[in-house]
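Q: Glycine betaine/carnitine transport binding protein GbuC, please. Structure only.
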Amino acid sequence: MVKNPKKQLTLVIGMLLVLFLAACGSGSDSEENAEESSDSSTNVGEEIDYTITGIEPGAGISVTTEKAIEEYENLDGWQVEQSSTAAMITELEKAINNEEPIVVTGWNPHWMFTKFDNLKYLEDPQGVYGEVEQIKSLARKGLAEEKPNAYKLIDQFNWSVEDMEGIMYESSDSGEDIATVAKRWVEDNPDKVAEWTEGVEDVNGVSVELVSTPWDSERASANVVAEALKQKGFEVTITPVDVAVMFEAVANGDGDATMAAWMPQTHADFYEDFKDDFVDLGANLDGAKIGLVVPEYMEEINSIEDLEAK
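A: Structure for Glycine betaine/carnitine transport binding protein GbuC:
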């Protein structure tokens, strides 16, 4: 039987129209789904409430991070949550265990880079955090004349990032106080200590006061120097204070020396305020660094500029 050609044409046109409309509907759905997906995604800033997890107020890195927020336009609306180093480490470990985003204030030497091997510094295009730093020893004026052997040992003190981080990590891992670990380190490293004490004469109970910040890195250096001084017969006191007081104490002669001046960036303001009132003995450690740190699984965040404004 011969089919009606008009009916066949109508059927074909109808089928094409259905297919066309279906295709249009499918494209529209895809676009809507894409828009919904885009709308539902969040940037890192939103996920962490535009908060950088920091340490104690007044710490050099805390002050510098406040400057970074002012300098980087994309950090507009961000804040630094300042509490303590221990609290920062706790939050960092929690985030890493859950593979969640986090931005923290970080520095070397510090044992967190030994404990967590998946951390990275964010690039700092504007150079707010500076380049590689030194940790310097400072002495009060008159120390060389009044206590020449203490002055000589402090002036000769020099060690590495690995030395300092080793003490810090061992203390954290074992639960032992840094003073205990530092004393053992001095006993286990006689060759290095011999370099510091070369030409230093024994004394009988001469008192020396070292001033330092209360953070693990500075506690490590203060305690190893204290132990080396004790081996030569000195009676040593370590006084932990905040950064501003540390510089002021050495400048005013209230403390004999410190091994905790981070330069040329971290403590630059404090150094400038008192530079004419103390003796700069030079670097006791090279290779220090500060900056913003994130876990490596935050693959798309490699620079401070990758963080989005609020």
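A: Brief note, in case it's useful. Confidence is low (pLDDT under 50) at residues 18-41.
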